[in-house]
Structure formats: C-alpha cells, structure tokens
Amino acid sequence: MFKLAFKKFKTKSISPNLAEVINVDTIEDKKDERLESDNQNVERLDISNARTIQTFPGIKPLCDWRAYKLKNHPGIIIIRDPFTERGRRYWIARCLRDYPRTPNIVNLNERLFDDSIRSDWWKQLGQCNDSKEFQRIKTAMRWTTFGYHHNWDTKIYEDQMQSPFPEDLTSMCQLFAFALGYDDFKPEAAIVNYYPVGTTLSGHTDHSEPNKSAPLFSFSFGQTAIFLIGGRTLDEEPSAIFLRCGDVMIMSEESRLCYHAVPRIIKTEKSWSSLLTNEGFDNADIALNLLDLDLLKKVGDPQFWQPFSNYIDDSRININVRQVLNKGDIKLD
Prior knowledge:
Jelly Rolls, 9 helices, four-stranded antiparallel beta sheet, 24% helix
C-alpha cells in the first residue's frame, strides 16, 4: 500500500489528486464539505498550557503557534509555520551557505566534484558562470550531515565520525522540544536534505539511532512537499500531508519508527525579495547570542538575499534533527 501511494504521487505523466492530501490550513474551516476528511483525520492541538518559552529571534510568540496532530498516526505533530519571515530566511541561508561546509559531510561524489566544490558548495555555486555546470552542481547536491554522521554503508553511527553540532540549531530545536514537553531532548545528529522540484525521497524508517524513543524534529523551508506517513510495515496505507515553508513536524511515540517518504515537491511558494523590518530582534534576549547576528541582519537586505531566493524558487530544504544516544550515555558502544 505504501509503495502504491508513493508511485501515485510521484508519477509525472499525470497530476496527482491533491484533494487526497491533508491540508492543515483547512482544518478549522467547517463551511466546505470537501474538507470533512481532513477534519476527521486531524485535530487542533491545544498548546495553551505548553511550557513558557523565552523569546527567540525569528520565531513567533507561542500564543501565535498553530499545532495539529494526526488522529490515525499517533505521535505526529505539525506546527504550522511558527517562523517569522526573517527567521525563515535565516535558516535557509544557514542551510545553503554554512551547513554544507567542511568538516560537515556532503553527498557530492569525489570522482565527479573536486575538493573546492565539496568543501564549500554554495560559494562555488555562486562563482559558477557556466549555466550547465551551475545546474549540474545544484541538482547534484542532495544532503549534508553534521553532529554524529550516519555511515550509509554500515547503517550505524560511529563515535569517530562526528563534526560539531551548530549552537544555533541546538537552541532552536530545544526551544520546540521544551515547549512540547520533551525536556531531555538533545540534538546530536542532523541531515539537511535539498530537494529541487522533481526530486523525491523513497520510503524508509529511521531506526539506526540507539535512542529510538526520542522524537525527530523536521523543519521545512522553500517549496511545498507532499509527505507520506505510514505504519511499521509497507503493507499499511499511508496518509499524505502538505508540509509547507516554515512548517515544523515532530515524529514521536508510535510514529517514530514508521515508514515515511517525500514523493513530490510542488512549487507553491513565491520567493521573498522585500526589505525586511527589524522585527525587534535587536532587543531580543540572550538567545540572540546563539545566532549569527550578522547573518540575521543581512537576510533583510534584498541584494544579499537574492541568491538564496533564487535557489528556493524551485527547491525545498528540510532539516531533520535527532538524538542518537540514550540518556546517560556519553558515547556510542
């Protein structure tokens, strides 16, 4: 059932029936009978009693968050775009400019791309004047990892395969974790996936971490993904849901080890090119010290922002963060 659903949404010869895809923006619209199935499968999550969290640059106040849970997939939580526009821009820029740099690992094959490209992909892309070479580099870049690196051959994490985990991403993840009651969550491994329109991610489960009870945090930026979440086996029929720019998804409890996939990227978002207002971030609290303040300011400059805007005009970026170690462990076995 899962593979059939993946094939249906992936097929390029015909447009998929998007009416089957859950859209959390319509959940509270009771006037349209076509939305009845969404209202049956999705429920607004009351976070009014959530933990008080500190002001964090680029993230809206907790009272403005809209959170939802999937009734037939326990443990799936979607927070609908809790980021400000400056916040979205900041994380997009970090994912493109900074996170793919050495010593982090990228997927680019050393036989096809030289060290200068693999060590600083975004810089080399910006200096590329050949349109064919530009497209070759852009479409080839699919992921970067940091923190504990997953060994794709052995399917395990190893102590000797690590790079520093960014402080800004740690702080941001722990803010969401604390608000939802995951006090002990510790970000230890991350993969940033890059999805040009037309690319996919096949069905899989995330089961390599020794700690399989801690939630996974997923942050979406750029164009819209159709995300499939199924069950513990491929025989179970999955649900399809839109993940849009700025959405945060948490996979916890039963869903933590379920099959999931991205069969399609849909171009729905317009690039941002306006001059941003201050948003008051100069007066933010100590959390500001954990972000790249220079970048936080620069993303409001249309000229600086334009290359990033051009990239996400036809691409999606996804940051997936997880805890590797069990509580109390100081290293992998």
